[in-house]
Amino acid sequence: MPANPKLIAQNAQFIKKIHEHAPGVYSAVGYAASNVHFLVGETGVIAIDTTETTQAAENILADFRKLSQLPITTIIFTHSHRDHISGATVFAEGRDVEVIASDNFDSDLVGVDQSRPAPNGALMARTKRQFGISLRPDERVSLGVGPGDRPMKGMGAGYLEPTLRIGQTTTITREGFELELAKAPGETPDHMIVWWAAKRILFSGDNFYHAFPNLYAIRGTPYRDFDAWADAMDQLMAYAPEVLAPGHTSPIVGAAKIVESLTGYRDAIRFVVSETVKGMNAGLDPVTIASGLKLPPELAEKPYLQEYYGMIAYASRAYYAGTLGWFDGNPTSLGQLPAADEARRVLSLAGGAQNVLAAAQQAAADGDDQWVLELADKLIVSGAEAEAATTLKVAALRRLADQTINAPTRNYYLLSARELEE
User: Fold this and answer.
1) CATH fit for domain 5-266, picks 3.60.15.30, 3.40.50.2020, 3.10.450.60, 3.10.560.10
2) What is the pTM (predicted TM-score) of this model?
3) Mean pLDDT over residues 27-31, rounded?
């Protein structure tokens, strides 16, 4: 199936490989959505993160066993996202192991209060679309930060509860490695980084990867603190690492290259904040602000700031909602009509559903696919010419999917198209 060539090229960032950073220090990249890191000591091994499924963890462990037969005795979680904590039981191999996380580590795999209302159904449906779960491998060409074709058996099944939680900064010695564990809130509030000063290797979790940061995930997330994430880049640079081993995509080697990458990341986040605030203070609505927002040329050209995973427009709208809330400042929005009611009135003004359908067909012929979607939605929600409108929408979603550089958007479009057909 066609896809944006730039998105296909991003797959070079997660070619399946175990990278060696120093004797006995490795990163397994490309086996799953996220990376796993190993530090081999004299009598045991430290594992940093455990990937997303038990099957992926088994595959990684099988290849790692070609390098070391020592038992894994300590597991460190950089943060609580499922794709980093779901293979722990595989690496433990039936032994009692130490599991270290931050003191505010908060996973949705355990301890969820089922007595309280929660949008679990909506989150599950949207997560499935964002990651293209159930799409064919040729449709899901990439996750933006990981391979599209990856093992899915045992998703979320191998979690182990932390046995040690750390505060702001703690130095530990395990298996002969003296490591600094430091809180570094960014993509999540519970983020923790791991620093091995002896070889100047920094394990940064998801605070950096080779794509524009996912400041808002379309699967649905609480507000991510943009300022904290930008500040984390300064925190990472203060270590002056010579190897940066991220939670996704390939490691970066070389102090100057790391500084350049982290500086660009920080500046891009702060630019989105600054420009969004300017629009907010000018009284613009979030859609208008986002539609005109582009990084300055010196940042836009950086390969690690391409929108393979995060999107600038999504980030801007999330910052608006996270700081001012859903209301766009226009009093009309305070009493906004339900979508079906508005659609019926618009169709009446347009002279009927046939006219709107004809306009949608013309938009499709003109390649104006976003307009196709918006017109089709009016017809679908009103119940007028819904079948023809659905056919138009499905085709437009697939065309847009093939054009976008953003993997989550591509996956969301393609799976939504399939759901409409079914």
Assistant:
1) 3.60.15.30
2) 0.96
3) 98
